[in-house]
Amino acid sequence: MGDQKLIKNTKMVEVAEQLIPELYTREVKPMGSVSIIADEQALQGWKVVPDIESDNWCGRTYGKRDSFVLDFGDHLVGYVTLSIQSVGSPQDAPLKLKMTFGEMPCEVAESFDNYNGNISSSWLQEETLYVDVLPAELKLPRRYCFRFLKVEVLDTSRRYQVMFNQASCTTVSSGDDARVEPLPANVPEDIRMMDYIAVKTLRNCMQTVFEDGPKRDRRLWVGDLRLQAQANYYTFKNYDLVKRCLYLFGGMRLEDGTVGACVYEKPNPQVDDINLYDYALLFVACLHDYYEASTDLSTLEELWPIAMEQLEIGLARLDVRGIVRDDSTWWSFTDWQDGLNKQTPAQAVLIYCLRRGKELAGILGLDKERHYIESKIELTVKAALEHLWDDTQCLFVSGETMQISWASQVWMVLAEVMPQEVNRSLMDRVFEQPPSIGMTTPYMYHHFIEALILAGNYDQAVSQIRAYWGGMVKDGADTFWELYNPADKKLSPYGSFLINSYCHAWSCTPAYFIRKYML
Amino acid sequence: MGDQKLIKNTKMVEVAEQLIPELYTREVKPMGSVSIIADEQALQGWKVVPDIESDNWCGRTYGKRDSFVLDFGDHLVGYVTLSIQSVGSPQDAPLKLKMTFGEMPCEVAESFDNYNGNISSSWLQEETLYVDVLPAELKLPRRYCFRFLKVEVLDTSRRYQVMFNQASCTTVSSGDDARVEPLPANVPEDIRMMDYIAVKTLRNCMQTVFEDGPKRDRRLWVGDLRLQAQANYYTFKNYDLVKRCLYLFGGMRLEDGTVGACVYEKPNPQVDDINLYDYALLFVACLHDYYEASTDLSTLEELWPIAMEQLEIGLARLDVRGIVRDDSTWWSFTDWQDGLNKQTPAQAVLIYCLRRGKELAGILGLDKERHYIESKIELTVKAALEHLWDDTQCLFVSGETMQISWASQVWMVLAEVMPQEVNRSLMDRVFEQPPSIGMTTPYMYHHFIEALILAGNYDQAVSQIRAYWGGMVKDGADTFWELYNPADKKLSPYGSFLINSYCHAWSCTPAYFIRKYML
């Protein structure tokens, strides 16, 4: 790692850099102060109760060890300013302050000192700082992602206290609210609410790229990009931001030509050395969707060779039977689900992307490529039905252990290897006999919903959206989360729910489903 | 406190603000990394040992919980820059760093978490910060006062480590090294070393005012100013900085006209509400010394009414006998010495300042004032000899308990209430029968040395300088300290020696003694 040679197309990266968007800003003031109280009945064990005199945080005096929690009323991404003055004798020692930012109440209620998760504690949003001269308008230089802000006065001196006169957050996003069309009046309230939260989730992830989560990890991932772009076409319609992201992925690839799973913007654009089989292929689907939404032919023409190369790289993993090889040398994402075998979902992603590649080749008038891809679709579909379909159980199986998972069925439906009616009965079957290997992320749930719709089971799709994203709404989500398991609301893939992202790109697609299929 | 009405002369404050000096800067690199090892034999229990490969801190890779201590080789006041880069995969999470700055090894060796002193913990110099984008040239915005810098990598991520390419400190001072004359070649090495350290102490305290300590509390105190100014006239000769400070004190006074004990520069000049009997009077001595050194008559003319007013305020405290009243309503500094009664030292400070006031009145040709002051000198000297001199013990006594202290004898010598020969035998007497109420601060020791010289006991003065400041040199002082008790080197007036100032203005006067009397 780190020493890997990467392919860089400077011209493409320059195109991407020319497209860095200006951000829309908005000034938000806190609603007031709140108390966060342990409550086993509340989500994650913490209940938010407005303080009796919740405006009193402003203008009160605070001394050593005093603290308060501000509730900004909604999930925000932006820059915080705090006005502070001293009270009493002149300020004869620096002010020592601690600020803790939380998307969720748990983050400001539980001490970060006990954090023992397996990703970096540096994502936990806190600052300890010294103010040498009061009064001060403290402008914190870092961007935070939060609804709650805990302010702790760690020390003043015996001769002075402090007063906070104002707090505000300047939010940032490259999503233009004015471009989002209001829903028709007849849309049910719960659907309207889900759309509202989904749009907000997308907006807060839309920065100078489509970030996966504005709290963590803030990177542009091609799999997350694809879902955000789909939601974006039905909401903010920021085509240039998608174009920028496609050029970043196209302009910086791994040594063998694979589109990297994620890229960084700073200090200079660079691709990470993570190679995910499915994510690289989904570049093709993302380009397909972009062209369909924007009809931007020149971008399609320029990026097509890279898309075609992803298909070739994906096909190179086929074994003699025409099945994606499953061994210890690869990594395909699919879902965070423990124990999930990725072979069959990966085969399906390959077919799914081959189909979109074929369509693009057609648009470009590249008959040779189109026929070639068509032949590969036939090969991989045939192989899938022959080797991955279990005739006895009437389900797709995956890997050496013939694992039956939701992911395999869902992705094979999306790959359209069987006719719609058969897919519909397949989806019915998994509801009747739910595979023990379930679904964990909203990313996987998105594909599940899309599969239900594609299989013609629209009602089930809607009720599943209501059950899953609607569950987050009932649990008080301001934005949709990285992870949601109704049976375990403290679940984290990282060993601590304090570090989960609670505004996560791949969770924003209710807006896509609602606006594409439900209106 | 805080609501006290203060007198502000805007014109005088403007004169002061026009004199804000440009600071001289210098770039200093660390000598290398060191280990700080517990050692009961070492000063304050901590020994500094250069690391075997002490240049290796630079260019090595550090991961979570790794740390190192840089030794910059000398006491510095300034701004720190650190160059950091990531090593390994791209930086997929912020870098969380902690930096701890120490004037002394104890500050980087002992945890600040256990600090339980009685002044604000916010003076302890540490920062915890996050670096979102690497490589970075981290320029810390606050000024630090240190020789040792401990850098702790609190977290990176599992995918990258960090490397430090460079560290430097841009020092600041309003003292121009070029103006300090080198000592003649025949000056003994130990005296030369004391002068060197004293000049450095003064330089590091000379900022936009004469600070008392650049680490803590960074204020301009009139008592400290007087000693720094005296040393300054024999070294940096920055007359304008003294003038600025005199105008700050003159321009902002307490409600009754008293010169405040200290002033702040920021955010706007303001006087603190601390009233110290002796410090207010010493404004007169400070103005006297300034005129003597600079012959700046217009400043003397402009500030004279304020000086005269201080004498009047001081005289208003006399009782019918002509003795400074000692009750619970006042505060005079004199020294940090526990249990010290301030009456007799205060009487002596009054006489000392009346004498200088009389001289200034003479220079200004103000005969009426000169005669008035002369009459008050006679009154207070006579009263002192009648009521504060114990004929049996042949010592000055102070307060209701007739306390015998070093401070009373020293200050009465400086007040010249008795002829030189009598003063000399008085000083001899205190050496023979040392009063149990001793001396604690270098500030008090300064006056002790000055009294020995004035009493004609030059040899004793030199050997006392060697014993006291020379003791600090032997203990490894880079700059002279706020407090030095050879019998208890962990002593602190604040409950923790971590928060003592180890570069303190009132400790800089060996340069004055050496250059004024010993050359």
From TrEMBL, chains A, B:
Any one GO BP annotation for this protein: carbohydrate metabolic process
Keywords: Hydrolase
Entry-linked Pfam families: Bac_rhamnosid6H, Glyco_hydro_78_N
Database matches in InterPro entries: 6-hairpin_glycosidase_sf, 6hp_glycosidase-like_sf, Bac_rhamnosid6H, Glyco_hydro_78_N
Location of the Alpha-L-rhamnosidase six-hairpin glycosidase domain: 197-517
Keyword Ligase on entry: no
All residue ranges annotated as the Glycosyl hydrolase family 78 alpha-rhamnosidase N-terminal domain in the record: 31-170
Protein name: Sugar hydrolase
